[in-house]
Fold this protein.
Amino acid sequence: MALQESGEMYLETIYVLSQKNANVRSVDVSEHMGYSKPSVTRAIGVLREEGLVKKDSDGFLKLTEAGLILAKRIYERHTVLSGMLMKLGVDEKTATEDACRIEHYISDATFDAIKAHMIKYDS
């Protein structure tokens, strides 16, 4: 399944919010991302159809096992890439914004090489 960039962003946001608070609602996602509630509702519906997110009886969003795997992968890309850019001298705000764009398009092979390089030279 090839998830579009926007879907990846929603998964990453749900993951990040769930690290801070076990109960994540659509409104929390809306506020965090700066998107309208109807846009978030529509996107969450697509992610639910894909089997990546479920909503419990109280309306809280939970990542499925498949959703969690993807969200962790996306978040790892974000953190590694933003860390690399900051080590190169890019300010944190720009590094974070650029990493957010790059993380969705970079190949697995290139990301794995960057990650290995960062691990090798960080130790």
Summary: The chain has a mean pLDDT of 93. The CA atoms of residues 7 and 46 lie 8 Å apart. The beta strands are 53-55, 61-63. The chain has six helices and two strands.
